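Our example copied in:
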Amino acid sequence: MDHKPAELDPAAHRYVWLANIIRDAVKSGAFREHEALPSERDLAEKYNVSRDTVRKAVRLMRERGVVYSDHGRGNFVSPAIVRGMTRFIDSFSEDTGKRGSVAGQTLLDVAPTGASLALSGLLNVPAGHPLMRVKRIRLIDDAPVGLHDAYFVLPRDAVLTRAQIERAGSLYKLLKERFAFTPAEAVENLSATAAEAEDAALLGIKPGSPLLVCERITLSDRREPIEYCVMKYVPGYRYSTRISAHSDAD
């Protein structure tokens, strides 16, 4: 692998930095599908890290769906279809762009709020802890496809405005640049519901129409909760995910 290392962010864990290098190398085409990665020893020497760091980076890549392991043979690049189905890190804008469409948004609410008892438990903060709420209609090629109601754990002095989000286009990109927001993985629960009148009006559908509901808790690279979001999608929105079995699964 002849891939120039990215500059190490001092705030990031070293294994995350290495995992991102491997991911970028795969994206750039430096590896073919099912091609073996260099050995732990070779990666450790090339990037001047410990073999434990390499193991953690590879484990993170497996969780992302970028690589898979074949016991006794090594680690290999996952097929593109698997990498494309992995719900990991990508923002709605990034995910939509990969599908060849243009993401958009209509902001409904941008305001600070205190954590409710329910949110305090989900985000591991005290009740009343300052959060930033951002509620939006999500668009694909100017057509409404979903509602996102998100609560973010940001620095106490953080100021986030409607104008900033509108200028940035991508909320995740803005949060990363301004507040070192570092989404690493997410835990999701999926369910279905019937659209209530308010949601139906916002999405341009009939009340009672089925909606896919996704509740997501986003974790930082330190595995701390930094976002809780309820996402509701109209019928026809394609939601892809990857399900893996543990080695001891029946």
Remarks:
- The chain has a mean pLDDT of 83.
- The radius of gyration is 20 Å.
